[in-house]
């Protein structure tokens, strides 16, 4: 391509290559942690762990989508961000349903398992956040990846707090509260991502936008 004959385009291509590598790494981390947390969450009867496990699954799928559209036009990237924003919103609604179910049944999760797995999840998401830091202010697609990872770290801290709360109170209410907080974070992140994606799609439809996106 003609544009790649200059230093600016070569620099962008190199950055894109690094971003692709980082996405593959964080995709693998999230897929492994989904398996760990869903198993532990079911075994411990923890709504927060199960919600966090599904969040890992959603993130792995989102990173896969980001890899698919990487290098494509702004319209494709913004459309992918819309899909990711919608998936985050659905995740938030699912967690709300889980919170209601556990509240009705008075579930008391195993705080020990919550604590150990929560520390593992925090370490995994902190590593992903550090890897993705350089792209936190990118387009809607890149920013959606950053927001997902940021929310995950906050959710992990909340899970650890829930484990301490269950240990101290002997009830499942701290676990239920944390799951509710995770739902709010997911819904808030979804709104932010969808708003930016829609803005970029509107911009893409203006005259000359296609030229600028290249």
TrEMBL record:
<dbReference type="Pfam" id="PF01545">
    <property type="entry name" value="Cation_efflux"/>
</dbReference>
<feature type="domain" description="Cation efflux protein transmembrane">
    <location>
        <begin position="23"/>
        <end position="201"/>
    </location>
</feature>
<feature type="transmembrane region" description="Helical">
    <location>
        <begin position="56"/>
        <end position="74"/>
    </location>
</feature>
<dbReference type="InterPro" id="IPR027469">
    <property type="entry name" value="Cation_efflux_TMD_sf"/>
</dbReference>
<feature type="transmembrane region" description="Helical">
    <location>
        <begin position="176"/>
        <end position="194"/>
    </location>
</feature>
<feature type="transmembrane region" description="Helical">
    <location>
        <begin position="21"/>
        <end position="44"/>
    </location>
</feature>
<feature type="transmembrane region" description="Helical">
    <location>
        <begin position="86"/>
        <end position="104"/>
    </location>
</feature>
<dbReference type="GO" id="GO:0008324">
    <property type="term" value="F:monoatomic cation transmembrane transporter activity"/>
</dbReference>
<feature type="transmembrane region" description="Helical">
    <location>
        <begin position="153"/>
        <end position="170"/>
    </location>
</feature>
<keyword id="KW-0472">Membrane</keyword>
<keyword id="KW-0812">Transmembrane</keyword>
<feature type="transmembrane region" description="Helical">
    <location>
        <begin position="110"/>
        <end position="133"/>
    </location>
</feature>
<protein>
    <submittedName>
        <fullName>Cation transporter</fullName>
    </submittedName>
</protein>
<keyword id="KW-1133">Transmembrane helix</keyword>
<dbReference type="InterPro" id="IPR058533">
    <property type="entry name" value="Cation_efflux_TM"/>
</dbReference>
<dbReference type="GO" id="GO:0016020">
    <property type="term" value="C:membrane"/>
</dbReference>
